[in-house]
Design brief:
Helix content: 25-40%
Bound molecules: fructose -6-phosphate
Structural class: alpha/beta
Radius of gyration: 26 Å
Strand order of the largest sheet: 3-2-4-1-10-9-11-14
């Protein structure tokens, strides 16, 4: 969703704030803005569009360029109110004393606005955020509460989610941050303080981090800080953690796009995900040890997630049911949170999330916790809300993912689900020791990352050429069966997200029950075809499309002539087993979507209307 960065220290603010916003731009890019102190006033600059528009505006403004010491900045993904300048953050209260940047949604903004209007407060924007800053200003300007008390009083009256940083003209040495439902981290370096929606704008400056929990606020005053409760005026003991993200994770290196870099990184990320988590005859997953007794005896398992992570969940279901023989239900987190699933203390709920901050996934975890289920997080961001709010979990360890379209996180998630399915099967004795050993040998780095993915990536030019040929298509069908049905869904999602071409993923045989009506000479259909037990059936499905003159693109590891004859175009993957096939097919479809989007001139890393982590319902 939106990105927040704030700085308090002795340096010039703008290089730090703008540098930070550029790192956060993947979270939203409808507008950007900054506020800082200059000539005893809070000076605000806001622009519609990307951070570079804001940068140009600041470069023209002496007041902005020279601000020192204290500033807040924001990049917006619009929720309430159009993405125009008046709705861009930071927002000021009516007295122009209080400035705020906010990520989240204030759900009861209407009644509060009505109340404030009755107190003669006028609104300049259509945002829920302005309601919050006006409420803080209202309490502060009444004169009975100090700055910190006014922020607390306002936060105690709002419903919904917030990650905020607030400045006050009367307190040029103070900055207050608070969170509920929207992540915020505080970075500390001697007498300098950095706040970010995640660590990306901070990591360049310091590795010493405090993760704020829900209903906590950080009060930074002069060169000291205090973490307090939003609910009452008490200090909370907090640990400063040392994080070891690599700064390289936040740079594009030799690539023009983060997405491209992240696709390539899969040659090593999967090995990082698997490393140290197996021996030759067992799966380790230490993060689950404390709850393993309950997990292995689960009566049923729910997997809940959104988007790409939900697709990984579908693969997880297939693997867990196949190896461990436990019933698994996969639910969109946004549905799970309101539906009537049968959950109790014999249920295990696995939440999958790259960011660990997706609002619906967090709500699903909270529901599962309330019902007494054991909650397991599969997440890429240590310290994130999913990591903290589940009973136990496994980190996917694929490094920071910045491209808005998820790539390396998906293949890391399915690698963990594969290990989890095998570990469950081992404990439940639904797999023989020799079969387990064979699988573990297969998950060995040499078979996955090092050799086969690199060999696929060497075919990139051919995939690029093919993608350019199809850039003008307006619709695509993606079809697969079994483990490759989610691969088809994921291929279609990648294409529509970054190229804006309509694409649908379907189980290959289900296509006859509707989508086949779309087929004509203009509709390309991508078939994902491993040489396994589904092979003959898929050939029949291909024939059905071909006889209706549809264009056929085949992704396969088989050299069979029959496929070459049926295909208009074919991506030949390195010969492999059915599990690694899923990863290779996914990567080839990520590249296919990437090159179509590039050929169409789309902004691959920042597709329109999307944001990297969806921290609102
Ligand atoms: C698609 C994509 C989204 C995310 C979804 C869940 O490329 O990135 O569909 O997968 O928003 O996000 P996480 O995994 O962070 O919970």
């Amino acid at each position: 969703m939106c990105g927040i960065v704030a700085y308090k220290g002795h340096k010039k603010c703008f290089p730090i704030l703008l540098g930070g916003l550029k790192k956060l731009e993947y979270r939203g890019y409808d507008s950007a803005g900054v506020a800082c102190f200059y000539n005893n006033k809070i000076n605000v600059t806001r622009r519609v569009g990307k951070v570079k528009e804001l940068e140009e505006a600041i470069n023209d403004k002496k007041s902005s360029k020279n601000c020192e010491g204290l500033g807040i900045a924001h990049t917006r993904w619009a929720t309430h109110g159009e993405p125009n300048q008046k709705n861009a953050h930071p927002h000021l209260d009516q007295s122009n004393k209080i400035a705020i940047v906010h990520n989240g949604i204030i759900e009861n903004h209407e009644p509060i606005k009505k109340f404030l209007r009755s107190k003669k407060i006028q609104f300049k924007s259509d945002t829920d955020t302005e309601v919050l800053v006006q409420l803080i200003g209202y309490f502060y300007n009444k004169g009975k509460l100090n700055f910190e008390q006014s922020v607390r009083a306002a936060l105690q009256r709002v419903d919904g989610a917030y990650g905020i940083v607030v400045l006050n003209k009367d307190h040029p040495d103070m900055m207050i941050a608070a969170r509920k439902g929207s992540p915020l981290v505080l970075g500390i370096k001697d007498n300098e303080f950095f706040i970010g929606s995640d660590v990306s704008p901070i990591i360049k400056h310091t590795q010493r981090i405090i993760y704020l929990n829900d209903s906590e606020m950080a009060v930074i005053d002069g060169s000291s800080y205090d973490i307090k409760s939003v609910d009452k005026d008490v200090s909370l003991p907090k640990k400063v953690e040392k994080i070891d993200y690599k700064i390289d994770d936040f740079d594009k290196g030799k690539f023009k796009y983060f997405m491209h870099k992240e696709i390539h990184e899969q040659a090593t990320t999967i090995d990082n995900t698997l490393k140290g988590r197996t021996t030759k005859d067992s799966v380790l997953l230490h993060g689950l040890s404390e709850y393993w007794e309950e997990i292995q005896h689960a009566k049923n398992i729910y997997i809940t997630a959104c988007g790409t992570s939900w697709h990984a969940g579908l693969i997880g279901k297939n693997l867990i049911e196949r190896f461990a023989k436990v019933p698994v239900h996969v639910e969109y987190a946004s549905e799970f949170r309101y539906n009537h699933s049968i959950i109790d203390n014999e249920t295990v709920v696995i939440a999958i999330s790259q960011s660990g901050e997706t609002a619906d996934t967090l709500a699903a975890i909270s529901k599962a916790n309330d019902f007494g289920a054991v909650t397991v997080g599969i997440c890429n961001v240590p310290g994130s809300s999913v990591s903290r709010e589940t009973d136990c979990g496994v980190h996917t360890r694929c490094g920071h993912e910045i491209g808005v379209a998820s790539t390396k996180a998906f293949t890391a998630q399915i690698s963990i689900l594969y290990l989890l399915a095998l570990k469950l099967a081992d404990s439940r004795k639904t797999i023989t020791k020799s079969a387990l050993k064979k699988h573990l040998a297969m998950s060995n780095a040499k078979n996955t990352g090092q050799i086969q993915i690199k060999s696929l990536l060497r075919k990139e030019k051919a995939i690029k050429k093919m993608a350019e040929k199809y850039q003008k298509a307006s619709d695509f069908l993606y079809l697969g069966r079994g483990l490759n049905f989610p691969v088809a869904l994921e291929g279609a999602l990648k294409l529509k997200e970054i190229s804006y071409i309509h694409a649908e993923g379907y189980p290959a045989a289900e296509m006859k029950h509707g989508p086949i009506a779309l087929v004509d000479k203009n509709l390309p259909t991508v078939f994902v075809v491993p040489k396994d037990h589904t092979y003959d059936k898929i050939i029949s499905n291909i024939e059905e499309i071909r006889s209706r003159k549809g264009k056929i693109i085949i992704v396969t590891d088989s050299k069979d002539k029959i496929l070459r004859d049926l295909a208009d175009d074919l991506i030949l993957l390195p010969k492999t087993n059915q599990y690694v096939f899923v990863i290779l097919a996914t990567i080839s479809l990520q590249l296919f979507a990437f090159y179509i989007a590039v050929a169409k001139g789309c902004d691959v890393d920042q597709p329109r209307n999307l944001a990297k982590s969806v921290t609102v319902e």
